[in-house]
Structure formats: C-alpha cells, structure tokens
Write a structure and sequence with these properties.
The structure holds two protein chains of two kinds. By secondary structure, chain A is mainly α. Chain A has 13 helices and two strands; from the N terminus they run H-E-E-H-H-H-H-H-H-H-H-H-H-H-H. Chain A has helices spanning 2-34, 52-59, 61-93, 99-111, 114-124, 131-138, 153-178, 182-190, 195-206, 208-223, 227-232, 244-253, 258-287, and strands spanning 37-38, 47-48. In chain B, strands 1, 2, 3, 6, 7, 8, 9, 10 and 11 form a nine-stranded mixed β-sheet that branches. A two-stranded antiparallel ribbon of chain B has the order 4-5. In chain B, helix 18 packs antiparallel against helix 19 (408-423). Chain B is globular.
C-alpha cells in the first residue's frame, strides 16, 4: 500500500521534477561549469581557466562600481517601497470598500510589462518633451537631464523601481492588516491608547512576519534588476546605473565573455543566498 | 456484339482504366515527392520597413521555388546574438542567419558555418563582383563562411530648418571640421536647449563606430595593420578627440547625453547611417539634408562601414542545400538591387551599384548621394574575435572625456592601455 502511494506520489511530481531538472538544475550546474572556462558562447572549444574569472572579477573596477550601484539601488528601492507600501496600506485600511479601487491602481504597475512601462518613463524623463521636466520648469525649479546626468540617472531608475515595486508591498501589507486580531485594538481603545501608539506598539510588531516577507522578496527582486535600466540608461552615463545583471548581460552577450558572465551570475547568486539567510536569521533571533 | 467481345472490351477498358489510374497515381505520388518543400528558418534583426521589404522578397522566393519554404524569424538587434549563442551551444541553429558584421569574427570560430565557397562552386564564383573589403568578415582560414547581405556607411545628416533659423545656407552643409564647428555654434546659439551637433557618447560599439571616422580622417587610425596594437593614442588621435570634446565642453554646441535630440528637431547635425534616410523622409518633423562627413584641414575622407553578413549553418544535406540556394538568390545582383532600393542600404558590388533599378532610386532619393559617394572611403572595422571587447574598453575610456571629467590626453592613454589588455584577451 505504502509502495503504491509512493509510486503515485513520484508519478505526480514527475512532470514538475522533469521541468525543474531541465530548466533550472541543469542550467544552474552548467553555468557553474562555464564560469570556470574562457568561452565566447560560439566557439566549439571551452578553455578551462579554473577560478581565474572569479579572481579577475574582484580586481575589476567595473564590477566594483556595479556592486556599489546595485547595493544603493537595492537598499533604496526595498526600503522606500516597503515603508511607503506599509503607510499606503494603513491609509487604505480606513477607506473601506473604496480601497479596492486604490489597491487596483497601486497594483497595476506590478502587472504592467516592465519594458513597455520603461519606454513610457523614458518619455516622461525626456529633457525636451518630458512631462516631469516641463512641470519642474513651470514652477521654476531646475529640470535635470535625468537619464544623461551622472548625478540624476540613478535616482531616476530608482524612482521607476519604487513605482514598479510599491504595488506588491501595498497588497501584501493590506492583506496582513486585514487579518490582524481586532481584540488587541479593542483593548487598546479601552486603555485610551492613541492612534500613533497603536501603530507603533501593535501594528508594526504584529506585522513583522509580513515585513520580513516584503523585505526578502523586495530585496531579491531589486538586486536582480535589469529590464527597465536596460531600456532607460543601458547602465550609463559613466556606469552610474550599471547594475550587476546589466554587467552580466553585457559581458556575456555583447562582449562574448560567457565564462566571465557566468562568474558574475554565480557571485550574484551567492550574495543573494547569504544575505537572505542573514535576514531569516535576524528574524528568527527577534522571534526567540 | 458477341458476349466474348463484350467481355474482352470490358477487360481491356478495365486494364486501361487501371493503368491510367495507377500511372496517374504514381505520377501524382512522384510529383508530390518531388515538390515536398524543405522548410528553413532565416534568423535576422531587420524590423520595421526593412523587415517588410525582406518579407516581400522572401514571399517571392517561396513562390518561385517550390522545393524550399523560407520562414523569416526576426529578433530585436540585441536578442539575436544571445539566441545564436544558445542555438549553437544546444545544436538548434537555424538554416540561415544574417548578423552584424561586428560579430562575424566570433561566428567564424563556431565551427558550425557552411563553407559557402565550396557550396557555391568555388570562392571565385561565390564572391564574383563583391567588393573585397566586404569579404573580410566572411573569410576564415581560407574559406568563405558568409557573404555580405547589405552594407552601409555613416554620413552627415543636417536639419535644414535649423540651418535657416540660424542664418545659415540650408543648401551648403559643412565640408570641413572648422565649418562644422562654426555651424554648430550658430545653431546652438538659438537657445532653448537646441544642440548644434549631436554626438554619441554612450559607451559601447555605438560610440566607437561613430568616433572611428574622425580617427581615420586625421590619419590616427584605430589599430595597426596586424590588429595587434592601438594607433589612436597619437597627436592626430588627440586632435580628433579634442575636437568633439571642445564642441561639448568649450563651445557648448553639443551635450553629453542620450541619443535622440536630432530626431526631435532639437539638434542641427548628426552623423548616422543611410538606413535613416527613409525614416527621416517619412517622419522627420523638419526638412533634412545629407552630406559627406566633413574632414579636418589636411585630412582625408573616411567613414565607417556597417552591414550584415548572411550565412548557412551546418545541418541535414537537404536543409543545407536549401539554405545555400536561398543565400545564392538573396546575394544575387538583381535581388540585392531591389533590397537596397527598399532599405536604402548600399550596394555590395559594382553590378548592383550600376543596376538601372538602383540608379533610378538614387536619382529619386538625393539624400542617398552622400552615402554612395562615400562608400569608397569606408573603412572596415578590425575583423578579430577580440574586437567587441576592444571596442567596449575603448568607448568606456573615452566617455569621461566627453563629460569633461578626464583630459583628452588621459582618456586616450587609458584607452590605449585598456585596448592593449583587451587585445591580449585578458
């Protein structure tokens, strides 16, 4: 009986397992193998170079710059979208039925194709016909050349990143807030606790698991950012928006350095793994 | 009629019917077998008007050749190379592809390309009449692995409306660097963020390909004849880079920024390729003109050569034969002439250049004359496997000079070191 059940179980998971092996596990292992070679992706010969790609990576100025840009982008986008997402969800909670409309509006960027949205943002940031600069000029504020200025290009792509990410945080927080026990708030009301105190001492601690989820998913999403930066700035000007995924793409598919690109990919993967584990560890310690 | 006669007649008619039916059946079967077409894919990145022109030609080929069906598959420019890399690694290559000439050195080493020289009856026959400079990219270890599918070069586009507004003669585009500088300053003096000249400063092959003509015009060159060392870090090279840097940072006649101001009528001049002629004619919100690239005092005419190569991938004999048949047809002079008319690409051979179809088109499209006149001054970029890395390193070292954060001397010295490193494959 048990054998029969096991057979059925294996049979049921087989399709998913085959797909996982074919499209995740095999490329994953293959890319590790490629990262130890010098290969242009076309040549029949893959020259084994050991850990040379990794050694070059940590001496590469472009990689160091891209690491710094990725860190600034990831921290800023994750932090701001999480805080704003929480605040907006709090406000929507008080709007009753009409909050559904607002949730839909906030969530729409998440389901919008990033490339299409990036093209629209490109028009918005345009120094000649862009609404943003026209608006700034109308109120006599300096209108930067957003995507071409070394100081403004990164803030510009961060704004788009936050716009894209915010809706997810709002929806998750809204769902979390709706499931909070009302008894705590009723008791707090009886004790004459102010609105801000309820948020500070009840809502924020109770929402900690949701915050962890939003932070981890946001972090993983932001650290791998590629598409909208590729469209808006292609990593420029002067490498000021050259995030790691973009560097990986350029090395692998423009400069024919697939071995080096794979080494970047693996470094990125290990970074995400270590930082995610750290986040979980911190959360567990707080819970204990 | 006797019964036996009737029987005989019946048997005979049955036999005739059977013979005819069987004969017809086998003829149909044989015919079916003969015309069963081989379907092949043709990967390329020609979209928009070029893509439409390609589809028209392919439909014509498919109609005339019952034994082959060519299916064009178009990818965005940036996606085609990754797709080909994946296809080569996984053994799922298309029958035919057309790629940027800049990728050819790497494609040649894949070991997956058909020897077109052998397949088309010898190199002489396969390349008859094609300009030798265009064959550089397809030649590998004495074999012809690809043929030119198109070629183009860079010339000067200028906005006649802005020329008029700035008090310049719209029928007298600049011929020298000095004139170009004067005109650019006059146009930028119009204010409202209008640039006199739009300069490509984003790192990558775009910057390198746009800047190389300035190096060739001054005689600085890019790499040496054996493609083993850079030559641009010289007095002539400094003159070339200083000229553009000054346009941005001294004359303020140009801006270090994103590409696209000229399209919106916000820049007086820009260097671009012949493929833009049709687009500007149909869509530009201004009257435009073209001219040969201005040259420095004592300099020489020079422009950069672009284009695509068409190649067949090794596969089943029938597929390979169909691919070679299509390539032969596509690179033939009559088809190339029509292709150039539809796309505004430049001719790949004298036969194409002198064809009535193309000559009439050039007469109807005067903006093409500058490109045609310049084709003989077009330089080929180094056809070496390290070129993408060389170009990338070069452009990244030059970018800070355009933004004014590094001096011209330092930028060229940095570029020199970076290019040497890239050439060494490190």
């Amino acid at each position: 009986m048990r054998n029969k059940q096991a057979r059925t179980a294996y049979l049921l998971i087989a399709p998913a397992l085959i797909l996982f092996i074919g499209f995740t596990a095999y490329p994953f292992i293959w890319s590790a193998q490629i990262s130890l070679t010098s290969w242009d992706g076309l040549n029949a010969v893959k020259k084994f170079v050991g850990f040379q790609n990794y050694a070059h990576l940590f001496a590469d100025k472009e990689f160091k710059q891209s690491l710094a840009v990725t860190a600034i982008y990831t921290v800023t986008v994750t932090a701001i979208s999480t805080i704003l997402g929480f605040l907006i969800a709090l406000m929507l909670q008080r709007r009753g039925k009409s909050s559904v409309i607002y949730r839909t509006i906030f969530f729409s960027p998440v389901v919008t194709a990033t490339v299409a949205a990036a093209v629209v943002w490109q028009l918005l940031f345009d120094p000649y016909v862009g609404v943003i600069d026209l608006g700034l000029k109308a109120v006599h504020l300096p209108a930067p050349n957003w995507l071409s200025d070394t100081h403004w290009a990164l803030p510009a792509v961060i704004i788009v990143g936050i716009w894209k990410r915010l809706g997810f945080a709002v929806i998750v927080y809204a769902a979390g807030l709706s499931s909070l026990p009302t008894s705590c708030y009723e008791a707090a009301d009886l004790d004459g606790v102010s609105g801000w105190q309820k948020v500070r001492y009840l809502t924020i601690p109770l929402m900690r698991p949701v915050t962890t989820l939003v932070l981890i998913t946001g972090f993983i999403d932001a650290i791998q950012v590629f598409d909208h930066i590729f469209i808006l700035t292609s990593g420029g000007p002067m490498g000021s928006t050259n995030v790691m995924s973009l560097m990986l793409f350029n090395q692998g598919f423009k400069l024919f350095r697939l071995g080096y690109a794979s080494a970047i990919g693996w470094t990125l993967f290990l970074m995400i793994l270590v930082l995610t584990m750290l986040q979980w560890q911190l959360r567990r310690r707080r819970e204990l | 009629m006797k019964r036996s006669h009737i029987r005989l007649a019946s048997i005979l008619s049955l036999a005739v019917f059977a013979t005819v039916s069987l004969g017809a059946g086998s003829a149909i079967a044989a015919n079916k077998k003969a015309v069963k077409p081989v379907t092949i894919q043709f990967w390329n990145y020609w979209d928009g008007g070029n893509g439409q022109a390609l589809n028209v030609l392919i439909a014509e080929f498919n109609k005339k050749n019952k034994d082959v069906i060519v299916k064009p598959v178009t990818f965005p420019w940036g996606d085609l190379l990754p797709k080909l890399q994946t296809a080569i690694a996984s053994g799922t290559t298309p029958a035919v592809a057309a790629t940027d000439i800049a990728w050819m050195a790497n494609m040649n080493q894949s070991g997956k390309l058909v020897d077109l020289g052998a397949a088309l009856g010898g190199i002489k026959k396969a390349t008859a009449g094609i300009y030798p400079s265009l064959l550089t990219y397809g030649t590998y270890k004495g074999k012809i692995q690809s043929l030119p599918a198109s070629t183009n070069n860079l010339a000067l586009f200028y906005n006649k409306d802005l020329f008029r507004k700035a008090g310049l003669n719209p029928n007298k585009p600049p011929k020298t660097w000095a004139e170009m500088r004067t005109d650019a300053m006059a146009i930028s003096a119009l204010g409202n963020g209008i640039q006199g000249m739009e300069i490509y400063v984003q790192p990558g092959e775009g910057l390198t390909w746009q800047f190389q003509p300035y190096l060739w015009q001054t005689g600085a060159g890019f790499l040496n004849k054996t493609n083993t060392a850079p030559t641009f870090n010289s007095a002539a090279g400094k003159t070339a880079l200083q000229y553009l840097v000054d346009l941005i940072n001294v004359d303020h006649a140009a801006t270090a920024g994103q590409w696209g101001a000229f399209d919106k009528g916000q820049a007086g001049m820009r260097i671009d390729g012949s493929w833009m002629v049709g687009g500007y004619r149909d869509n530009a919100p201004f009257e435009f003109g073209t001219a040969m690239l201005p040259i420095p005092d004592g300099g020489v005419h020079a422009t950069n050569m672009g284009g695509e190569q068409i190649m067949a991938f090794k596969g089943k004999p029938a597929t390979q034969a169909a691919a070679v048949k299509f390539i032969k047809w596509f690179t033939s002079a009559p088809i190339q002439a029509r292709w150039d008319v539809a796309t505004n690409f430049m001719p790949i051979s004298d036969t194409v250049a002198n064809s009535n179809v193309l000559l009439k088109h050039i007469a109807d499209e005067p903006a093409l004359k500058a490109f045609i006149n310049q084709q003989k001054y077009a330089y080929a970029r180094p056809a070496i496997a390290t070129y993408p890395a060389v170009s990338d390193a070069f452009s990244k070292a030059l970018e800070p000079a355009f933004y004014g954060t590094v001096s011209v001397t330092d930028a060229l010295a940095n570029a020199d070191a970076a290019v040497r490193k890239a050439l060494s494959g490190k």
